Input
Amino acid sequence: MPELEPPQSVSVELENALQQVIATKLARAVFAGFEAMFAEFLNITLGAQSRFEQQQWQGVQSAMRERLQVYERQVKNVSEAVRIIAFQELHEPQLWQQAKHIYGKMVAEHENQPIAHTFFNSTFGAIWDDKKIRTVHLFVLKAKYRAKPRPFDNLVSRISLQNGFTNAVQQLIYRQAFRVQFIDLGKDIDNLQRTLRAGAKLQCRQVYELLDLNDGYIEYANSLFFRNKACYLIGRCIAKNGDNMPFAVAILNTDSGLTLDAVMMGADQLSLLFGFARTYFMVDTDQPARYVDYLSVLMPHKQRFELFNAIGFIKHAKTEFYRYKVDTTKNSPIDDKYIIAPGTPGMVMLVFTTPGSDYVYKVIKDKFNAPKTASKAQVMAKYDFVKQADRVGRLVDTHEFRYLAFDLSRFSDELLAQMQTNIASSISIADKALVLKHVYVERKMTPLNLYINQCDDIKLNKVMDDYGQAIKDLAGANIFPGDMLMKNFGVTRWGRVVFYDYDEICPLTQCHFRQLPSSENSFDELSNESYFDVDENDVFPSQFKVFFSADQRAFSYFCQQHNDLFSPEFWQQCQAQINAGHVYDVYPYKQSWRFT
Output
């Protein structure tokens, strides 16, 4: 007897039911992966205070590197599960659209809905890779995907000033629970209340006038912010009329015990603490988006993506950055076009920006200019090395994007010609969009070689001193910049020198620092050929002087402060300290702000 075929309507209904089952399983798998990722991220973060109290500084750096791997590892795990679940329907757009709808309902009331959305986007991107990705399958631009600020009252505590400002400051510190005792808490509290009072007098007169009237209150975040060898107590002094002065108190754990080291006051000083050249904070919270809402109140000029990035949610920061990029493009004048970034053109990267933007876009060239010989994969590995490193305030953080779309009409003819010549393999043009297959986004700065041209003697001396200090800070963090030409360093709005060219960067301990051998034959030293054997990792510090050959005035200032950089002994001593397990002291605030 022949097998009966179901009616077409029944067949379609069965097919739809099957797709619903698969889409539901897919959504559940992504959600389970998100929850696992968040739990693992939080578990590593929860150990921050214990590592601080035990002075496990190597452990602090290891934990930071480990936490950076959590997200990608879970995306990979979920992607493998989804491949099995979806099977032959894996690349069916309709299935993913249905899964997105189901997943959206699953996380609709979730505390961390914004980050959960980003995790779905990451999984989708990992599966589809270089196939055409449509935003209809992603939680990105629509208004309903953009989290609105929420109350953060449960994240903060308040101390009334009714019993006096000094008493309130005492309570602020007494409420912080540590296993380690303070060395001289009375002295620390006295320093803190006097400095806060002086800061309020200068920065927020309304707050200052209410301190002596015992009016208003001190508010502080319930979770401490841990980074490197310090932790930070974040809060603000608030007047009854709402005027407020944000602050961050730096707490160090020395061999003798705890001490309050400094206090930063006002949005600008806090901005320096949350700067783009710093590594990420560890903050004990399962409500990171609400903490970003709170930090946005303290630093209203900071973008949300900067704050998500600062507390370690770097993937969601990319989602927030993309929204920021789209919004600012829409709101900028039509003639604000992308152009080649100011400064000396790179041998490895094509760099572009807009005059009104705070960011630059860097794309690896198809072919490097001589004498660069590295491969594209090697350059990408260098950028990944920087992402994992302790940037000690001297390396610009980067956001790495794949398939980042731009409005084609915003590109100048000159830039488009350069792109077709230098990065043709990395661009795709369709209709009104230009898509970069791989690009790094960095904060825009003034290149140091351009900055010095507008300096008087006082500014030049100061910036050259910081240039040398930047190199020393990197050395202390086991980082050798490689190419230390001034064009590879930038100057921030704070006048701080930061390195941003990573194609020759490497761990300092991999280098072999040598004295340049002398020759009995003077003609040897004039020859283009080396008159002695040179290994791949050999470095001759005496040759660093060539970096200053274009500006003798700058060179003379540099030598006054940092002549030791031209000797192998300085670098060898740094290597010895690193090999002995020493972790370099980094202060993300000015020395003049310290209490000692």
About this structure: The first helix runs from residue 8 to 46. The radius of gyration is 27 Å.
